[in-house]
Amino acid sequence: TSELLRNICMRNLVRKYCRGLTAERKVQLQQKVVTSAVFSGKKEGYLESLSQPFLETRLKENDLNPKVLQLIRGENIKYVTPVIKYDRNGFKARERLLVLTQSSAYVVEMAKIKQKIEYSTLKGISTSNLSDGIVVIHVPEDNKQKGDVILQCEHVFETVTKLCILANKQSLVKVVKGSLRFRVGSGKEGTMVFTMGPEPQVFKDKTGQLTVV
User: Fold this and answer.
1) How far is residue 17's CA from residue 12's CA, in Å, rounded to a whole number?
2) Whole-angstrom Cα distance, residue 96 to residue 107?
3) What is the residue range of the signal peptide feature (predicted)?
4) 25-177 has which fold?
5) Cβ–Cβ under 8 Å, residues 113 and 106
6) Which pLDDT tens digit goes with each residue over 145-195?
7) For the whole model, what pTM was predicted?
8) Positive or negative CA dihedral for 33, 37, 41, 45?
């Protein structure tokens, strides 16, 4: 009898908790479930991220340049965050914005759209198992795309979760160890190496590879 009552009490507590959830809290929990499926036991810093609620967006729509808003008019903007984009050849770091809409991801420089990636064409999303914020968005080989997009995000768990939910491609997220290959363009590939060190840094090494410490 005690066991039966304990089970009934637990079910009642869960029911009361679920019915008392706000719509905002429910979205938070749903996103955290996706984050757990993608990163739990795979990437450093995941456990520390559990207590940090995801923001709806890091920048508001009115923070974007009016010219950018005009170019992506008609698309519902869902998430905007500052990122560092690394050039595919010389790996020069450049400040950019990552704008996620209902149907596409945009890499934005001030009033210019540098790259547009439709979710339907997205080939994959890669990040390392270490505590860096590197994210590589893999795109198809066609004339519309310059190559894969290499980004560094301060809120990597939040950004990747938002991206894979909007694109509905959770299964395409890969957490890699050691290194990963990315497409530079025109059939060429580059290599990114992940390693441990006394302080975080990203640089082009003597062999021409992008090294993330």
Assistant:
1) 9
2) 7
3) none
4) PH-domain like (2.30.29)
5) yes
6) 788 999 999 999 999 999 999 999 999 999 999 999 999 877 788 899 999
7) 0.90
8) negative
